[in-house]
Every structure is written in structure tokens, then in C-alpha cells.
Design brief:
Helix content is 32%, strand content 19%. The strands form 4 sheets. Strands 3-2-1-4-5-7-6-8-9 form a 9-stranded mixed sheet, with helices on both faces. A 5-stranded mixed sheet has the order 10-18-14-16-12. The chain has 2 domains: 233 residues, Vaccinia Virus protein VP39 (Rossmann fold), CATH 3.40.50.150; 237 residues, Alpha-Beta Complex (Adenine-n6-DNA-methyltransferase TaqI, Chain A, domain 2). Helix 2 links the parallel strand 1 and strand 2. By secondary structure, the chain is α/β, with parallel strands linked by helices. The radius of gyration is 28 Å and the shape is globular.
Length: 531
């Protein structure tokens, strides 16, 4: 498999080799006899072949494109599985297929796909090399044959893989899925990984047994065995998921959560949408979004925060003026912020002698950090060591109005809420915070928007649709802008009443922090969102 890795030699065939403990676990998922016909379509170093042989399986066929690998095994065909003319069918296909994005494919592999009938029938240049391995494997399974693969999980809900997902639903169903978020299965690979068991059959399973593991630790036999038996352990979650449907995203969530997310998108639906469906899915503009009603900006970049924080030093009058109020991500809570930090902020393009004369205390303060400050990324210009390196969105942040802050990254393990906080005017975000401003033509109150963003259903929606890396959700402009938004129908008196009540209760909570008010707010949103 292949992912975007830094500082690693280019991996021409997308090879990341499976640990033996994982290969053993995957083989144990198979429900087959010792005489069953088994295929490994990309055997790599042969870890699956060796493990299968050790367990008494002998009828094994394998393919490998790299002739330098698995040379000690006699049953390896050194040719591309993608182009191989395979006339046999199998009871089990198992392995770790290569994953390479189209743009990173070698020219020879692109040419191979360009003349491949299966690829041209189901896929295009927006798709990934992994897809053909999954689909061709299913084609080669016997009725009730099993496909057990380990691979990245991204394809389970992206637009470009919808043809693969539909094909799978039409030809069988999932029995088990194991989802690993931050677990380091492969060296230097940080994407979320799944192990799935798919059965090719006209008769479908009703439910999928799903195990999720969140710990950032190497997998052991004991951990994997506990996940298989669904034994309660730290950082593990077990859910039953209904079989996936054609033309929908695959979410590893309970039916209750999936229905809530569907209701949210439906209630936020735009009226009279006439756009044609794109690749079998709803157009992204089918529901109103936060981006339509709010301006969003990532925070200012100092390049070295500790150098710009005031720590009780004496200030002259000019220095008192040359400061700004900042709220850091660590000080954000749901609905409100706890602390304000004073930062040095000098916009003037001064010479160093002028800087020393006007701001003598700041000059002395910065000497401790000068070497590190001069090493900051310069953004293709000369930046004085006492200046911030990137004043992105400064005009937006200078608006004399309240704004909502949220950490630009949020760890979501063992948590069911985000930290969208209402902040006063004249308070600025640094690079670890993203700011949200109500657009001038937005009729809903800033308190309504604040309370809306802090609802559990928004947490669930972003957990399944946002930019998630391991257990971290990113809150840059794009993912926030894409959140479905319930606009108030200002001709509907009930919706107006709900909006006004939510606004008043939110104001009360911001004043007295009585958490009972949050339950009332959530109850009103449940009415409004029909949850």
C-alpha cells in the first residue's frame, strides 16, 4: 500500500509489508477448509504465504510484480495481478494490496490500466490503484468466497470510489470490519487502516460486526484477539452496522447515528435544488452550509509564539499600544474562552535602531529569542525578528464584532464535543485557532450559530465527513465551511420562536455557566432539526 510520506524513497509499487501478527490475525478470520483454494494477489515478501503454510494450507497461488521478493516460495507468479489472465476461482483471497494514487503511478502502470477492461469499465484517472485489486479479487471469488484485505480506509466514503462500493454491494456483503485510527501498523504510515472481511454471495448478511481501535501503540496478538472477540479493552469500541447501500457513503456508525446525520442533511436541504446528481451522489451544494453564512479564517502566524507573549515586563506608553489580545486553543471551551494572553504586535516597518528607541523594553525582551526568530520561515520576504511572519486574515480579525473561535486541530478520542467558543471583538486568533464571523446578510444570531456548532450531531457529522487524520479533526476553512447549516425559515413562526429561545438561553449560559441550560438548548435543537 502507498500513502503520501515525507522523507521516504519513492515506492514504485506501493509496497508496505504486513507484520506477521496481523497476517496471522487476518488468516484466522477466514472460514475455510485446509483444501480451500487461496490467492494472494500481491504477496510482497511472502508473509501471508508463509503463515498460510504454517497453518496447513497448501493450495495457494500468489502474484508479485517485484521479482526480487518472495523468491523462496515456489507458487509465486512474477507478473502483474492486474493484467494476469487468471482462469481459476478461489475460496479465499487475502493480502495487503498496493495503494498508489493515480498521479503517483509509474508510467508503465498507467499504461497497463489504460488497456485493462475492468479498469475502463468501472474506474478512471481519479481513482486509485487499490480499487482494481479489490474489484478483480471479487471477480475471482467462488460463490461464498471470502476477501480479506488490509488497506487504508479512505475509499469507503470518497466520491471517486462510489463505483467500487456499488459493485461490492451488488456482489456480496461485509461480515467484519476492523478500523485502526492511530495504530502504527506500517512503519512511517499515519493514515487510518481497515481490515475487512467481504463475502461474495447472493445471500447478504444483515449486520456488519465493527471493531474500532484508537490507541497509538503497536498491535499484539492479545489486542487483536480481544478485538475479534469484542472484549472490552481501553481505546476499543464495538458497534453493529447495517449493510451499506448503493450510492451512499459508508459510515462505520450505528444506525441511530447514520439516521441522525441523514436527518441533519435533509433538514438543511436547499429548496428547489435542480442540480444533476454527480457520480450517483447528492451535489455538495444540496444543503446549506456554514460557509454560506459565515466568513472563516485561520489565525495569525507569529513563527515563535513564546517570543511574542508578554510576561509582566515594564512597558512605556508606545509599548502598551503595541499589543493585542490573543486567545490560544488551550484556553477554549465549548461556548466560551477562559483566558486572554497579551501579545506584542508591531505592524510598523521600522529599522532596528527605530525599534530599539520606540520600544526599548520590547527590544530587550526579543534579544533572548533573536536567533530563533531569524530562523523562521520568511514567506519570500525579509521579516524583521520583532515582526509576525504572516498576518493572514488580519482585516477579517479586525472587525469590531464578536467572533467564534475553535482549535484548528482537535483530538476526538473519548470525546463527543468540540470547542466552539464565543469571543469578544478586538481578540485575535493565532495559528492554532480558526475564527468564524457572521456574514453581514446572515439573519441568525451569533449565539444561535455558536450553539448550533456545539451540538453533538455536528460533532458526529464532522467525525464522519470532516478532515480526520488518526484521532485528529482539522478545523481549517474548508471543513468548517462544509458543515450543513440549518437556516431559519423567517416565515415560520415556530422556527423563529426556537431561534429566539436558543439565542436567549445561550446568552444566559454565557453569563452564568449553568449547564442545565445546555440541556434545554439541545432539546430545542432536536425540535428544530427533527432529531
Amino acid at each position: 500500500m502507498e500513502v503520501g510520506l515525507k522523507n521516504i524513497t519513492k515506492n514504485k509499487f506501493g509496497q508496505y509489508f504486513t507484520p506477521k501478527v496481523v497476517a496471522d490475525f487476518m488468516i484466522e478470520l477466514a472460514d475455510i477448509s485446509k483444501e480451500s483454494k487461496i490467492l494472494e494477489p500481491s504477496c510482497g515478501e511472502g508473509v501471508f504465504i508463509e503463515a498460510l503454510q504454517q497453518k496447513g494450507y497448501t493450495n495457494i497461488t500468489a502474484y508479485e510484480i517485484d521479482t526480487e521478493l518472495a523468491q523462496e516460495f515456489l507458487n509465486v507468479h512474477y507478473q502483474s495481478f492486474v493484467s494476469a489472465n487468471i482462469n481459476d476461482t478461489f475460496d479465499l483471497i487475502i493480502g495487503n494490496p498496493p495503494y498508489i494514487r493515480w498521479k503517483n503511478l509509474e508510467t508503465e502502470l498507467k499504461l497497463e490500466l489504460s488497456v485493462n477492461l475492468l479498469w475502463n469499465k468501472y474506474f478512471n484517472s481519479l481513482c486509485d490503484y487499490l480499487y482494481i485489486f479489490i474489484l478483480k479479487s471479487i471477480e475471482l471469488l467462488n460463490e461464498k468466497g471470502q476477501l480479506i484485505f488490509i488497506c487504508p480506509e479512505y475509499w469507503m466514503n470518497t466520491t471517486h470510489s462510489v463505483s467500487l462500493r456499488n459493485y461490492m454491494i451488488q456482489n456480496g456483503s461485509f461480515e467484519e470490519i476492523y478500523h485502526f485510527n492511530e495504530t502504527p501498523i506500517f512503519n512511517n504510515v499515519t493514515v487510518s487502516i481497515v481490515i475487512f472481511k467481504f463475502v461474495k454471495s447472493k445471500k447478504k448478511f444483515n449486520k456488519i460486526k465493527v471493531a474500532k481501535f484508537y490507541a497509538n501503540q503497536k498491535l499484539t496478538f492479545e489486542t487483536l484477539n480481544n478485538l475479534k472477540k469484542q472484549i472490552a479493552i481501553k481505546d476499543a469500541e464495538y458497534v453493529e452496522v447495517s449493510q451499506f447501500k448503493v450510492n451512499e457513503r459508508w459510515l462505520l456508525q450505528t444506525d441511530i447515528v447514520r439516521k441522525e446525520l441523514q436527518k441533519l442533511e435533509t433538514v438543511c436541504q436547499k429548496q428547489n435544488v435542480t442540480s444533476l446528481l454527480d457520480l450517483f451522489e447528492k451535489p455538495k451544494t444540496s444543503f446549506h452550509t456554514i460557509g454560506e453564512v459565515c466568513d472563516i479564517g485561520n489565525g495569525l502566524v507569529s513563527g515563535l509564539d513564546k517570543a511574542f507573549q508578554l510576561n509582566g515586563c515594564q512597558l512605556n506608553e508606545a509599548e502598551k499600544i503595541a499589543t493585542i489580545n490573543v486567545i490560544k486553543a488551550k484556553d477554549l471551551m465549548p461556548f466560551f474562552a477562559e483566558n486572554i494572553t497579551k501579545y506584542i504586535f508591531i505592524k510598523n516597518n521600522l529599522k532596528e535602531t527605530e525599534f530599539q528607541k520606540i520600544y526599548p523594553n520590547f527590544y530587550l525582551h526579543f534579544q533572548e529569542y533573536k536567533i530563533d526568530l531569524e530562523k523562521r520561515y520568511q514567506y519570500n520576504r525579509k521579516i524583521n525578528y520583532w515582526e509576525w511572519v504572516f498576518l493572514r486574515n488580519f482585516n477579517l480579525f479586525s472587525k469590531l464584532e464578536q467572533r467564534i473561535f475553535v482549535p484548528c486541530k482537535e483530538r476526538i478520542s473519548n470525546k463527543n464535543h468540540f470547542r466552539f467558543a464565543l469571543v469578544d471583538k478586538n481578540v485575535f486568533p493565532t495559528q492554532d485557532v480558526t475564527a468564524i464571523f457572521k456574514k453581514p446578510n446572515t439573519k441568525e444570531s451569533i449565539e444561535y450559530i455558536l450553539a448550533y456548532l456545539n451540538q453533538t450531531v455536528i460533532f458526529d457529522w464532522l467525525k464522519n465527513n470532516g478532515i480526520v487524520k488518526g484521532n485528529i479533526i482539522e478545523f481549517s476553512e474548508k471543513p468548517i465551511a462544509s458543515i450543513p447549516y440549518k437556516k431559519i425559515d423567517w416565515k415560520n413562526q415556530n422556527e423563529i420562536l426556537l431561534h429566539d429561545s436558543i439565542t436567549d438561553l445561550t446568552k444566559q449560559f454565557l453569563t452564568n455557566k449553568n449547564e442545565k441550560l445546555l440541556l434545554k438548548i439541545s432539546a430545542l435543537f432536536n425540535q428544530l432539526l427533527k432529531l
